[in-house]
């Protein structure tokens, strides 16, 4: 077959598909921007159908992600990461919310000279604390609330010299357990390996590493994606799927064994984008009292249209 004849042959669909996908992806990156938004629902029962959730759309130049909800004295407070594209660094914001939506504008709760996200808020001994993601600082640190919900002061470093994301605590059988995804080797991305630590005090800086670390090595289900859920059947860990699939979400892992020597879990449910919902990814799930909240990634034009 000479070159003229070769040029007349139809393209082989299988062979051309990767080139087509790369080309479309390049065009999409040029004209579209990814934006995280928040979705919520009030219900007596836990809802996993996010197509029924109301949406909170952030301003065009930023995204909102990693939502955590706190119910206090009859009011729901929504903590989340606020990221402005021009600044390139996350901050922690908080907003009051009810079934009608936000009650006023979100307010700044915490800002540092490094990136913040995943505002894990917990209460202990009648005090409120927050462990935000601080991978850019190379530590896991805790903040104490001195004026709820917008005034927080740095209390201490819990774990030093660690490249960790999405630290999540849970108290179980008299001990505190810390889940965090961390880089196993220098230069690794901290998305594959889940590390577990334990202590008798959530504010200690002497956390004991679990002997099975990393207790989970799976990019599709190791990274924490919200509070550990307490159910009648036991604890369920929410995991963020960081795989290569275009439409990835969160996975729910029932904890089968959790003690100072052993750890085991099994997947019992998953939640991801649905056909026609306009979402590309979901990576956080939290519930408090009657409110369930997630975040969802959508693609929008980089420039105003029309």
Descriptive report:
- This protein has 306 residues and is mainly beta.
- The chain has one domain (33-301): 5 Propeller (Tachylectin-2, Chain A), CATH 2.115.10.
- Helix content is 8%, strand content 52%.
- The chain is built from two helices and 23 strands.
- Strands 3, 4, 5, 6 and 7 form a five-stranded antiparallel β-sheet that branches. Strands 12, 13, 14, 15 and 16 form a five-stranded antiparallel β-sheet that branches. Strands 17, 18, 19, 20 and 21 form a five-stranded antiparallel β-sheet that branches.
- β10 and β11 form a beta hairpin.
- The longest helix is centred in the first third of the chain and has 19 residues, at 13-31.
Number of self-contained structural domains: 1
CATH topology: Tachylectin-2, Chain A
Radius of gyration: 21 Å
Determine and state the CATH class.
Mainly Beta
Residue share in β-strands:
over 45%
Strand tally, please? 23
Percent range for helical residues? Answer: under 10%
Q: Could you name the ranges where pLDDT drops below 50 across 5 or more consecutive residues? A: 1-13
CATH homologous superfamily assignment: Glycosyl hydrolase domain, family 43
Give the SSE order as H and E letters: HHEEEEEEEEEEEEEEEEEEEEEEE
Quickly list its features:
5-stranded antiparallel beta sheet; Tachylectin-2, Chain A; globular; mainly beta; 306 residues
Summarize the structure.
This protein has two helices and 23 strands. The chain has 306 residues and is mainly beta. The protein has one domain (33-301): Glycosyl hydrolase domain, family 43 (Tachylectin-2, Chain A, 5 Propeller).
């Amino acid at each position: 077959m000479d070159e003229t004849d070769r040029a007349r042959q139809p393209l082989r669909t299988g062979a051309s598909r990767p080139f087509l996908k790369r080309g479309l992806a390049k065009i999409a990156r040029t004209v579209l921007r990814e934006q995280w938004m928040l979705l919520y629902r009030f219900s007596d029962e836990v809802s996993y159908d996010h197509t029924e959730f109301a949406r909170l759309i952030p301003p065009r130049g930023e995204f909102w992600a990693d939502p955590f909800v706190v119910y206090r004295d009859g009011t729901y407070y929504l903590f989340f990461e606020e990221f402005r594209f021009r600044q390139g660094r996350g901050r922690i914001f908080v907003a009051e919310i009810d079934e009608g939506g936000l009650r006023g504008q979100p307010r700044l709760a915490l800002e540092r000279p490094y990136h913040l996200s995943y505002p894990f808020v917990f209460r202990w001994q009648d005090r409120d604390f927050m462990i935000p993601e601080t991978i850019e600082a190379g530590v896991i640190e805790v903040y104490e609330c001195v004026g709820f919900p917008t005034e927080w002061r740095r209390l201490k470093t819990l774990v030093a010299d660690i490249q960790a994301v999405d630290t999540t605590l849970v108290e179980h059988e008299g001990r505190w357990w810390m889940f965090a995804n961390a880089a196993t080797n220098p230069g690794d991305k901290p998305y594959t390996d889940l590390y577990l630590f334990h202590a008798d005090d959530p504010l200690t800086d002497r956390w004991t590493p679990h002997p099975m670390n990393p207790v989970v090595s799976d990019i599709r289900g190791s990274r924490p994606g919200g509070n550990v859920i307490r159910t009648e059947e036991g604890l369920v860990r929410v995991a963020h799927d960081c795989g290569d699939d275009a439409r990835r979400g969160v996975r729910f892992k029932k904890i089968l064994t959790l003690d100072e020597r052993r750890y085991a879990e099994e997947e019992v449910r998953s939640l991801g984008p649905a056909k026609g919902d306009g979402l590309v990814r979901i990576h956080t799930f939290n519930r408090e009292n009657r409110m369930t909240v997630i975040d969802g990634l959508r693609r929008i034009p980089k420039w105003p249209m029309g």
